[in-house]
Amino acid sequence: SASASPCSVLHAAPVPQTCSHPSAPKAGDQEKGLSALEGVGFRVGQGLSERLTKEMPSFKDELDVVKFLCKDLWINVFKKQVDNLRTNHQGTYMLQDNQFLPLSQLSNGKQYLEEAPKFLAFTCGLVKGALSNLGFDSTVTAEVTAMPSSKFQVVIQKS
Amino acid sequence: MHLMSSELFTLTYGALVTQLCKDYENDEDVNKQLDKMGYNIGVRLIEDFLARSNVGRCHDFRETADVIAKVAFKMYLGITPSITNWSPAGDEFSLILENNPLVDFVELPDNHSSLIYSNLLCGVLRGALEMVQMAVDVKFVQDTLKGDGVTEIRMKFVKRIEDNLPAGEE
């Protein structure tokens, strides 16, 4: 079976070239590129969430949905579950992955600076897309405090 | 529940193409971006390939063709294309893919008739071979997405690249 993975595709996606317009300034290119990667992640999240939940009974509440992200979604993309989930029970969730797969494959400081934003942008989109497919609007931000650990803050909008 | 890794790859690739179609005005520009991205993947992938496959140096283009079809495609996409239509000079051949994992469940919308959906593959092959001193032209000549019976990739040897030594070689 195939060994090509989304991570290997993304690894080679150069950020400025994902979406570069000749007229845009350099900083703008970077932003556009990352936003494009988030867009890719969003669609993957939608599609993945659709496929994975097809055979499942409906979720009983919002927390159940987030647990699905931490478990089934994460395993399918990152080969492991989220390590730590915290919530204020008012729509904000913190997902922590202590061995975040894309980061654990980056070797040195320079590579990290160039590559990490791409994977974080993709993953924020992934989570948003999965939630969107399940009927939730959200904002997702990512933070790396200590390699290779990553934290994702998810705020689900009140409907 | 687990998706097969190939399903996830197909999903990601589709998301990538869809995003590019959104960001670029016309199919030609998307095709170029896919080729460019593929090239960037190829120049890095070759190292992974050589390390995992243990194939030795190819002595001619026929050996190269065999390695591409039977080892590389198998390793990364889980398929083994057949090799056909050799030119008399032995510098051109076709890879016939009876099924293309990138296009599972994909349909091209009507307004994207010039899109070469799997063009990333052409860039990958071009980039990877450049790192082993071969300049090649790679293009799709048949595509099941466009109604053809098979998917056919045509590869042409252009020239040997003498200038660059691979990193680490004395």
Automatic annotation (TrEMBL), chain A:
Q: Which Pfam families does this one have?
A: TRAPP
The protein's matches in InterPro entries, at most eight in alphabetical order, are given as: NO_sig/Golgi_transp_ligand-bd, TRAPP_component, TRAPPC6/Trs33
Q: Tell me a GO biological process for this protein.
A: endoplasmic reticulum to Golgi vesicle-mediated transport
Q: Which SUPFAM superfamilies match?
A: Ligand-binding domain in the NO signalling and Golgi transport (SSF111126)
**Protein name per its UniProtKB record:** Trafficking protein particle complex subunit 6A
Q: What is its main location?
A: Golgi
| GO annotations of cellular component type | cis-Golgi network; trans-Golgi network; TRAPP complex
The gene for this chain is: TRAPPC6A
Tell me the protein family, please. Answer: Belongs to the TRAPP small subunits family. BET3 subfamily.
Where, per UniProt, does this protein localize? Golgi apparatus, cis-Golgi network
UniProtKB/TrEMBL annotation, chain B:
InterPro entries hit by this protein: Bet3 (IPR016721), NO_sig/Golgi_transp_ligand-bd (IPR024096), TRAPP_component (IPR007194)
Q: Name the domain of life.
A: Eukaryota
What are the annotated GO cellular component locations?
cytosol; endoplasmic reticulum; Golgi membrane; TRAPP complex
Picking any one GO biological process from the record gives: endoplasmic reticulum to Golgi vesicle-mediated transport
Q: Which UniProt keywords apply?
A: Endoplasmic reticulum, ER-Golgi transport, Golgi apparatus, Lipoprotein, Palmitate, Transport
Q: Which SUPFAM superfamilies match?
A: Ligand-binding domain in the NO signalling and Golgi transport (SSF111126)
Is DNA damage there in the keyword field? no
Query: Where is the protein situated, by its record's location annotation?
Result: Endoplasmic reticulum; Golgi apparatus, cis-Golgi network
Q: Which family does it belong to?
A: Belongs to the TRAPP small subunits family. BET3 subfamily.
Describe its partners and assembly state: Homodimer.
Describe the function of this protein: May play a role in vesicular transport from endoplasmic reticulum to Golgi.
Return the protein name: Trafficking protein particle complex subunit
Q: Which organism is it from?
A: Pelodiscus sinensis
